[in-house]
Amino acid sequence: MTESTTDHEKRVGSDIDYGRFLDCVHCGLCTSACPTYLETGDENDGPRGRIYLMRSVVDGRMELTDTVRGHLDLCLDCRSCETACPSGVQYGRLIEPFRVDMQAESKQKASWFDRLFLYGLFPYANRMKVALWPARLMQQLKLDAVANRLKIHRLLPEKLSRMYEQLPRLKRGSARLGEVLPSIGPKRARVGLITGCVGEAMFGHTNRATARVLQQNGCEVVVPRRQACCGAIHYHNGSIQPALEFAKRNLNAFDFEDLDAIVINVAGCGSMLKDYGHIGEEFPGLDEATRERLKRFASKVKDISEFLVELGPVVPSGSIPFRATYHDACHLCHAQGVRSQPRELLGLIPDLELVPLAESDICCGAAGSYNLTQPEMADRLGDRKIANIADTECQAVITGNAGCQLQLEAGLRRHGNPMAVIHPIELLDMSYRNETPKLSK
After folding, report:
1. 193 and 272 part of one domain
2. Cα 215 vs. chain centroid, distance in angstroms?
3. CA Rg value for the chain
4. Do 287 and 340 fall within a single domain?
5. Torsion sign (Cα): 107, 113, 118, 123
6. Could you tell me if 340 and 416 lie in one domain?
7. Is 147's pLDDT higher than 90?
């Protein structure tokens, strides 16, 4: 690089470690793994092309035009390119801080939708529960079926209409988890449980199943009331300061030095929590003590399947006599490298037949809020995923991420497919409790 740091310092992305751009040797092996490149065939919609665009902006060889922004915004940040890359390019540590800089440079105020929903509602579980009460009542009274037939939601603004289409079948609310749940049998570990925001509001039953499974495996489970959203919603949309505030709240909520692990059952949140240390390093304004605490916190974070396999799971005995297929959530298999562990746990369940899924680790199009901000590409990827799932002729599709569950359920409904979508830990919980799940087909 011939230009000085002073020449660069006002450019978007100039604070990113330049060596990370140079790690990419432009071999192109990442393109076949990139969902958006597979759909468009446009080099600028692949990881190699996007790295070239970002580096060109940093070097001053290219302006950050709306076209360049468009190619970068179309990225799902699924991190599949990191799995495919033989050179170890840390693509997430390029695109994420670059987007933060893009947001700061644009000086555009957040839209009404972002203010009210992305930032004002989604990161807060209690607000979400209140907001979902009318939808829950409509489903219980079966009024939603009438509304769907009349397509009343099409009268709403586009993003609100899509939010309605993404709503799952909301289960009855369950009792609030206690702050400390005792182990069943001899205590093998003491763990914290992240309950999340959207995950707790829409899939609270999964959190309860997770707590029961941890207890069944000899874990004392700590569920702090003061915990907060992981910050991913803000961070992935380029809003760093609120994301850091959420991170600090979680640091203060968990006595993590006294825990063997901090367990999470949502892949996207787990990836964000594991990145706290990187985020602390890459953005100014944090003192060294906070940076160190972020690193220590991140080192304790484990996906539930990852933690149980490391602990050594208690073998369940309840029969689950179904055919199911497993979809790899991007932020579990690519960002966290957790692939075999969920399958290993599912393999312990008596009579559960697991059928391979074509393109299992290609993104379904959920990607956090992506299916709201990039609806066309999200639907294309969703349709691709649903076609592969339908080919398995299974009774259920299993996945370890709330966003994937929402996207897959919506896609299956759109295609008239009654297949159920379920979290792997729910099946394990049912097997421990000798319950048979009520699945479609």
Report:
1. yes
2. 25
3. 22
4. no
5. positive
6. yes
7. no
Mean pLDDT in the chain? 92
- The model's pLDDT over 406-434, given as tens digits with 9 standing for 90+, comes to 999 999 999 999 999 999 999 999 999 99
The count of structural domains within the chain is 4
Residue 333 lies inside a defined structural domain of this protein: yes
74 and 44 together in one domain: yes
Residue 409 is inside which H or E element, if any? Answer: helix 402-414
Q: Give the DSSP letter string of 117-154.
A: IITTTTT-HHHHHHHHHHHHHHHHTTHHHHHHHHTGGG
Residue 105 corresponds to which amino acid?
E
pTM over 0.85: yes
SS3 for 371-422 is: HHHCHHHHHHHHHHHHHHHHHCCCCEEECCCHHHHHHHHHHHHHCCCCCEEE
Q: Note whether 226 and 325 are same-domain residues.
A: no
Residue 328 and residue 299 in one domain:
no
CATH number at residue 276: 3.40.50
Pairing status of strand 180-181 against strand 219-222: antiparallel
Q: Please, are residues 283 and 319 in contact by the beta-carbon 8 Å criterion?
A: no
The last residue of one of the domains, among 90, 106, 122, is: 106
Q: Assess whether 186 and 306 both reside in one domain.
A: yes
> 419 with 300, same domain?
no
Residue 438 lies in a domain: no
Question: In the 8-state DSSP scheme, what is residue 114?
Answer: I
Per-residue pLDDT for 393 more than 50?
A: yes
pLDDT in tens, 229-258: 999 999 888 788 899 999 999 999 999 999
Enumerate the β-bridge partners of residue 303. 264
User: In 10 A of CB 289, how many CB atoms?
Assistant: 8
- Pair 237, 436: CB distance under 8 Å: no
Rounded CA gap, 370 and 350, in Å?
Answer: 37
Amino acid identity, residue 357?
A: L
State which residues form the domain around 268: 180-310
**Residues 315-374 pLDDT 10s:** 999 999 999 999 999 999 999 999 999 999 999 999 999 999 999 999 999 988 898 889
* Residue 69, token pair as written in the block: 């922004």
- Domain boundary among the residues 310, 332, 366 is at 310
Residue-wise pLDDT for 1-16, tens only, equals: 344 444 445 789 998 9
Residue 106 pLDDT class (50, 70, 90 cuts): confident
Dihedral sign, CA of 426, 430, 435, 436? positive
Q: What percent of the chain has pLDDT over 90?
A: 75
